[in-house]
Write the structure tokens for this entry.
Amino acid sequence: MRGILIINTGSPKTKNREDVKFFIGAMLSDPLVMTAPDWLRTTLATKIIAPLRASNSASHYSLIWDDKHTESPLLYNTQQLAQKIEKATSMPVEIAMRYGSPSIPEALSKLKAKCATLHEVVVVPLFPQYAQSSYKTVVEAIGNHFYKKPYSFRLKIVEPYYDDPNYIHALAESLRPHIAKGYDRLVFSFHSLPLTHVEIGWEKGKDFDYVYQIKETVRLVSKELDIDPKKNRIVYSSAIGRKWLKPDLNETMKQLPIDGSKRVITITPGFPADNLETLYDIGIVARDNFMKAGGEEFTFVPCLNFEQYWVEGLIKIITNKV
């Protein structure tokens, strides 16, 4: 019997400051996320950066956290996706978070409890493009845990699916009704990375090249929708230093109306599930910057979340990749 484990980055347990501080500290303590000597990184992450950012981030979470759900938007959307895949495939499915709960060990234990005859678990890192701070850290984390325990099943890990036709089709379907209404500029926003991370990936080749994979995703979506690539713009969000990928999302949003683009559509293909960096950074901050600069119509396309075309597409990706 085969099972499926879907892994995402994670989020705070609640929107309270202490939970947000713990989450930030855990994520930044990862050497694949923040590059610093081991003796310094944990202190910086947990004692300095996390306490400084916690209150501000908690206030942002409060604006996007749906009180109808106890879970964060990212956790809720990932759970719903897993439930739909389990129902459609009749295979046991669990989710895990790289940071926070449910943890990888918890999720593997739940899978084993669901099926005593489990012989293989397909691991799905929910990251279309490769980055050491997302895909690589998940693969290393599950490997470090798995090979220390006497599990009776084997693992198969789905590779980044930035150019998979099923992923491209799902993105195109999410965009199609908005494109049909007309627009001046289609903005593809991706999470920024330190240039040092980007250069390491570039030197290894296209299987590890974040920027190449981003551009390929955008090219293929544009081709499927038969849209003018000259109206596209690739931007990056959440940079925390000068030597990070640019152009910046918010600087671009301030400039577009000045350049004559009054109607924009913004999509975040690197995030299959809505989270703080889509609902707040794009849906609130980027929108506000654009409208204050003279924009007239700002359309934010939600992430794929658990739309049926994405459920069907991800099942095909899982099947094809393994």
Q: What stands out?
A: The longest strand covers residues 2-8. The mean pLDDT is 94. The chain has twelve helices and eight strands. Strands lie at 2-8, 93-97, 120-125, 154-157, 185-191, 232-237, 263-267, 297-300.
